[in-house]
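Lab notebook page, bench 4
Experiment: in silico fold of construct C2
Operator: M.H.
Input chain length: 303 residues
Purpose: comparison with the prior construct
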Amino acid sequence: MNLFPKNLIIYDIINELNLFKSESLNNLNNLLKENQFKPCGRTDKIKIGFIQPIEKTFIHSFSDNLMFRALKQTKSISYSAFKKQFSEKIKKSEERKQRSLNKKELKNLKEDLIIDLLPYTLPVDKFTNIFTFHSNKYLLIESANYNSAEEYTNLLRKAIGSLPIQPIKSSYKKIETIMTEWVKTGDLPDCFSLGTSAVLKSQTDGALIQCKNQELTSDEVLKHIELNKMVTQLTINWKEKISFNIKNDFSLTRIKFSNELKETNNDIFCEDKISRFYADYSLITGEINSLLSDLNKYLIFNG
């Protein structure tokens, strides 16, 4: 199981949740079990639920940090195949009725065709990890944007009854100002260094400039800043261990862990999956907690 996240959406847990405390974990495990994953039936399009990360529990706990795992199963019908069969059904129906179909008839025909095709559509599985960090101060969803993360916050809220969270507090303007200053001056905190990608947005007409594989402190990029463009996305390297793209909504995407970090536990035999899981999770927990501390300190999450 690969535990190294590629994307993260970060929420503040704004009220302390007793369910996330060590003495309540058995109760929490039972609540997650009641909402465990069940596979798609013949006519289901989507199913989502919790699964066991490892061994026989729905929760993995380490140093007051928690991990849950969800599985989303989706049946997606090929658009080209559907369009072809839908057109054929419309043609046959109109020939039989000797007239064009109205909107309601087209809708019913479409729904009937979907029901007919779903039993023969192979499901696609997507695994998503959910974390709490910093003694349950933050909830992290392994998703690339807030819309996709919401599926999993809703699932967790349904399971436990209440989930008092909110996106990290700060204004877009604040983080854009900090990132723009970093690119403009090249002066970053010691724990961070600039990557080679950024997105700049004009404050006048909203025009976007995308920089990829480029020296961000070059005259070309700085010229855009002089023309009143602000940095809205920026790739950053953290302590030569983790690189990531951070957006002005605090979502972290394209996360990459250094080879040295990922190979830390390579001395554990591949066959010993449980030991490797615990070792990797311990490693990731420590590094992400440290990264969150620096992001909070220098990008003012709670400002």
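Observations: The longest strand covers residues 65-75. The CA atoms of residues 45 and 75 lie 5 Å apart.
Next step: discuss at group meeting.
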